[in-house]
Amino acid sequence: MFSPQGPSLGELCVQALSSVERGYDLLAPKFDHTPFRTPQSVLGATADALSGLGPFSHGLDVCCGTGAGMQILGPLCQERITGVDFSAGMLAQARSAHPDATWVRADARALPFAEDFDLAVTFGALGHFLPAERPALFEGVYRALRPGGLFTFPIGSPPPLASVSHWATLGFDVAMRVRNAVWRPPFVMYYRTSPLSAVRDDLSAAGFTTTAVALTVLGRHRDGSPRCRLILARKPAEGH
Description:
- One of its GO terms (molecular function) is methyltransferase activity.
- This is Methyltransferase.
- Keywords: Methyltransferase, Transferase.
- It comes from Phytohabitans rumicis.
- It is a single chain.
- The protein is an alpha/beta fold.
- It has a single domain, classed as Rossmann fold (3-Layer(aba) Sandwich).
- It has eight helices and seven strands, in the order αααβαβαββαβααββ.
- It has a seven-stranded mixed beta sheet with strand order 3-2-1-4-5-7-6, sandwiched between helices.
- α5 links the parallel β2 and β3.
- α1 packs antiparallel against α2 and α6 crosses α8.
- The chain starts with 8 loop residues before the first helix and ends in a 6-residue tail after the last strand.
């Protein structure tokens, strides 16, 4: 599951018993050698889907981690690209890998931007927000975008009930709920708290017009449904 350069079991246990911020500070130096990093296949599929939707000027990676999203923003955006995260450790790794980008430490539930960006992306971050926290996240991204700006992110489709993936994600979420019930500080990371319908409702409530594109290159479930979709949430242009 992990490369030799990845974290040890002991290091993962320490991370799991920390807060989200502290846990990622500890994991940051080895994060890119774990399965938690956004796969290149997902980044590539997202880039291909966005290639015809530009041009974009300024780009923002929300909950940027070690900066994998810069592979998307760099080629698509003609000017400044920015990453925001609340983990100083993750930002340090991102800054080292992408020194030409701008890096901001902030809580994504209170983004410090106002109409600064044409494109915003996020990868693998929704599980770190409880359903009650998503509105603040989406409203902050909405404020950060210029009129007509685009907020986009891949979202996995729920696996079939009989699949191994279904029971694996269910088991993980149950274990995390038990952990958070008996241990403080909490570590918020769930796979099953951001269904597509709820995410679309929250985006609409924030003011976005939302569509979803099937990323069929990433495969399909046995029932033919796509394993992953790309959310395209557009902030209305001025006068609309």
